[in-house]
Amino acid sequence: MKYEAVIGLEVHAQLLTESKVFCGSSAEFGGDPNSKTDPVVLGMPGVLPVLNTRAVEYIIRMGLATHCSIAPFSRFARKHYFYPDLPKGYQISQFELPFCSNGHVDVNTEARGQQRIGITRIHLEEDAGKSIHDTAIAGHDSLVDLNRSGVALIEIVSEPDIRSAEEAGQYLAKLKQLVTYLEICDGNMEEGSLRCDANISIRPVGDAEFGVKTEVKNMNSFRNVERAIAYEIERQTNIVESGGRIVQETLLWDANVNTVRSMRSKEEAHDYRYFPEPDIPPLNISEEWVDSIRAALPELPEAKQARFVQNYQLPEYNAEVLTATRSLADYFEKTAADCQDKKLASNWIMSDVLRVLNDTKTDISEFSISPEALAELLNLISDKTISAKIGKTVFEEMLESGGSPRKIVEAKGLMQISDAGALEKIIDEIIENSPSQVEQYRAGKEKIFTYFIGQVMKETRGKANPATVNEILREKLKGA
Amino acid sequence: MKTCIELRQDYQQGGFKLTERVEEMLAKIEAGKHLNAFIQVYADDARQRAAEIDARRDAGEKLGRLAGLFIALKDNMCMAGKRVTCASRILDNFISPYDATVVRKIQDADGIIIGKTNLDEFAMGSSTENSAHGPARHPMNPDYVAGGSSGGSAIAVAAGMTDIALGSDTGGSIRQPAALCGVVGLKPGYGRVSRYGLVAYASSLDQIGPFGKTVSDAALMLEVISGGDSNDATSAHVPVPAFSGYLDTTEKMKFGMPAEFFGDGLDDEIRAAIEALARRLEDAGHTVTKVKLPLTEFAISTYYIIATAEASSNLGRYDGVRYGHRTENAENLESMYVNTRSEGFGPAVKRRIMLGTYVLSSGYYDAYYRKAQQVRNLIKQEYDQAMEAVDVLLTPTTPGPAFRLGERLSDPLKMYLSDIYTVTANLAGIGAISIPLAKTENGFPIGVQLLASSFKEIRLLQAAQAVENLAE
User: Fold this and answer.
1) Does residue A280 belong to the interface with chain B, where contact is any CB pair within 8 Å?
2) What is the reported pLDDT for A388?
3) What does the pLDDT read at residue A403?
4) CATH number of B4-246
5) What is the mean pLDDT of residues A385-391?
6) Domain residue ranges of chain B, discontinuous segments joined by +
7) What does CATH list as the number for B254-297+367-470?
8) Packing angle of the helix pair B268-283, B457-470 (nearest 10 deg)
9) What's the average model confidence in pLDDT over A395-402?
10) How many CB atoms are closer than 10 A to CB B206?
């Protein structure tokens, strides 16, 4: 029997608000342990939460970008459990009436083409602190760092619409792209500002009913998400195929040994005792507010992609690559604005620029060549001041020295030789010195033509205009 | 007896020195030590503040509205650098790093905070017997309770150990001890006074309010502590009038007496005293009519579901991790939690945590908590409707006068019924005040309660003043 996986993801994204979600403490990442706390963060007696409305604005941005309905009336709830990094004994979260519900995102999958992944809900909550059990730091004790406690977090809960590890990766990448476009989260999985848990079950292909699900946690990179899900699908399939039954439980992915281990069974599951948070009055979210947030949304990836195809006559694929992040798209547009040949800009950024970024593991925002300088280089190629090949040399030089392309070309004498008289002289000499090659060519061995091109380029140190060289060579080699 | 406003005028005109009056106050506190009204007395701080304020007065500076007066706080309000015990072992050595909003307002108004008063642990109780610091005792007879949970504050005012005291009222914890001790106790409408810095018992019901010897004392304190607060999202940003300036009026008011508050279980002497008051009010030209509040019978059960649910949640933070008591006797995280909380909380608190945890549990939430919220909304509506026909409601504050220490400790249900006339004001979120009305044959005070819609405190206080003028 063939089985298919049914997967739903719960994705947490830390919001980039300056202060925490229910108090004025800094929400910045890092710092000395417990330095970003105050009586509210510490859950001291008598303190009260006051909602950071910027966080609400951010979650509404995400809701609008994922086609959710925005609740006109929303409220917070307390979710109870005891853990040392949860100062109040409850997390302020949402239960009934989350801010956003019933949305979707579309992803392109290899196996199933374009798929719509439903979003059940997006709600706002506070992050917990961190418990440190590492004996190198904590010895035989456990230590608690509450710097992260109270940082604004949104939880995006998907429908069980995902069918493979690859699709889960695509969906997660799409969410990361959206949160970074919206500038509400930095999307960094390794630092934990984007986190993902997966609910996974399998069922015989064609069945409408769901199988028993497990929840997999602790997948702290894109690669781990795909590996852990693939592992869990295989584990469940093996159990079922050998006549066993799946047990509902929560599993932890261990990336060191590529396996899952049980964290708690269904019987040990918490009763969170949700009830409406009495310290924060329910919120009325006016249509005007939502409209003003909608009006201020940045151009989103899909719209940008379509516009790139339209305005710059780029192929779909190029437009998709160039809009992968907002900063890359901005870089392209700034380059293209000063560039005669938009397609050339697209090709260079996709091949050369992205290669360098990939090799050096840097983001486009930290790239040393400005869009203006790149455009200047590309224009030198377009107007045939230099050849494309010399362009690559200049590009490398720009990376190294940071100089302007025109100055590099001038200083090194890299200007293309397009003057027919000068080239003719060089070509005549080469023909004269290569009697056997000339003979072969004239005898019909067309391939040897590249030998002459190579000789000219060698002689001119690559500066000869290839088109002119081509023309003159063909003419001369025809013979008398 | 001088009202606080008269004392303040007297002080401003140089009638006395605070440096001298502070010693009188401290002497009274010392003399009444057996009543166990105070958990902490800030003698040195009070002396220093007294000297500072005297100096500013003598220099002709303009002084705040509480200059010349001493204030006591219930020991569930936070004051920077001072312990806040909540009369619980679990907070034994906890020192607050910050000021409650009411503390800041009192200090800005030049009131001198002389100490913090005894209470039922975490404000849970009706007799101030559930205290890690021992029971508070009735100022007229130490074998009797002073009521609770703000018993210490009521005693402090009744015995002249302070001019004004603050209490907190979740189901009657200001009004009930005020009635039992023969002082005025005011619970403002929900949101009138910031809860920031008040250690939470039941967040949707808790409200800070004043005790005073007179209605005008309570009015003066209310105008100082009221107002919206950016640190409390549930506080109301509504203008705060100078309440104490509105008390005397010749206007005739409409009093409504809900039949449900005069049924079985009400002490005969209290019933008679209130009926006599009703006649005197009519004689004075006011109207007294009967009103109906049929949902009253559900009030206590509704109250105990909501209050315990919120309490079970609010008290989750006392876990021994960051502050307060931590058990010596722990092998792992689980036993650290269990032993810390078992050692730290008293039986009345544990009972509420267990009840509250139960009513919020999955499978029981709809039957208890959700149902209670629905009933609460209906009670609110019922009060809104009743208030359309009258200015204030007139009821007993308590079913009986002060009772003996220990008498109800083993019978929680009977103890809970001490609040039968007071909890509805908290459920409905409206304002209510208890005013001393008469004395029983044995000499114990009898209080009468008035209730008015939220933010109608002027009318509430005017009616209270009218009652005070007619009291025996």
Assistant:
1) yes
2) 86
3) 84
4) 3.90.1300.10
5) 85
6) 4-246, 254-297+367-470, 301-363
7) 3.90.1300.10
8) 100
9) 90
10) 27
Residue B203 has its nearest CB partner, among A50, A87, A279, at A279
pLDDT surpassing 90 at residue A425: no
Of A45, A84, A271, nearest to B78 by CB-CB distance is A45
Compute the nearest-CA separation of A54 from chain B (Å): 16
DSSP A400: H
CB contact under 8 A, A45 and B230: no
Assign A409 a pLDDT band (cuts: 50, 70, 90). confident
Question: By three-state DSSP, how is residue B167 classified?
Answer: strand
Given a cut of 60, whether residue A480 has pLDDT beyond it is no
A150 CB within 8 Å of a chain B CB: no
Q: Which of A84, A280, A281 faces B321 most closely, judged by CB atoms?
A: A84
Q: Give A423's pLDDT tier (boundaries 50, 70, 90).
A: confident
How many angstroms separate the Cα of B289 from the Cα of each of A430, B256, B351, B387, B407?
Answer: 122, 5, 40, 12, 36
Order of strands across the sheet with A69-70? A69-70, A100-109, A113-126, A152-158, A3-14, A194-204, A214-217, A249-254, A259-265
Residues of A in contact with B232 (CB under 8 A): 48, 50
Inform me whether the pLDDT recorded for A384 exceeds 90: no
Q: Tell me if A45 and B333 make a contact (CB, 8 A cut-off).
A: no
Say yes or no for a CB contact (<8 Å) between B313 and A273: yes
Cβ <8 Å between B233 and A43: no
Interface touch A84/B198, C-beta < 8 Å: no
Cα separation, A422 vs A109, in Å, equals 55
Q: Measured between CB atoms, which of A39, A90, A281 is closest to B313?
A: A90
Q: What is the model's pTM?
A: 0.91
**Contact: A89, B200; criterion CB under 8 Å:** no
Nearest to B315 by CA among B92, B78, B122, B82: B122
Both structure tokens of A158: 């998907």
pLDDT of residue B321: 94
Cα gap A35→A9, rounded to integer Å? 33
Asked if A174 is an interface residue toward chain B (Cβ–Cβ < 8 A), one would say no
Instruction: With a cut of 70, list the residues of chain B below it in pLDDT.
Output: none
**What's the confidence (pLDDT) of residue B381?**
97
On whether any CB of chain A is under 8 Å from the CB of B215, the answer is no
Percent of chain A with pLDDT over 70: 100
CB contact under 8 A, A82 and B97: no
ipTM exceeding 0.85, yes/no: yes
Q: What is the mean pLDDT of chain A?
A: 93
CATH code matching the domain that covers A420-477, chosen among 1.10.10.10, 2.60.40.420, 3.10.20.30, 1.10.10.410: 1.10.10.410
The domains spanning B4-246 and B254-297+367-470 adopt the same CATH topology: yes
Mutate to test the interface with B, among A47, A93, A149 (most CBs of B within 10 A): A47
**What percent of chain A has a predicted confidence (pLDDT) above 90?**
71
Average pLDDT over residues A283-290: 98
> What pLDDT score was predicted for residue B428?
98
**Domains of chain A by residue range:** 3-289, 299-412, 420-477
Give A479's pLDDT tier (boundaries 50, 70, 90).
low
Window 69-88 of B, Cβ < 8 Å to A: 76-78, 84, 86
Cβ contact B253:B463 at 8 Å: yes
Catalytic residues of B: 74, 149, 173
Q: Are strands B70-74 and B112-117 parallel, antiparallel or unpaired?
A: parallel
What pLDDT sits at residue A473? 86
**Chain length of chain B:** 472
Structure confidence at residue B275 (pLDDT): 97
Q: How far is CA A247 from CA A319, B374, B413, in A?
A: 45, 39, 45
- The torsion angles phi and psi of B120, rounded to 5 degrees, stand at -70, 140
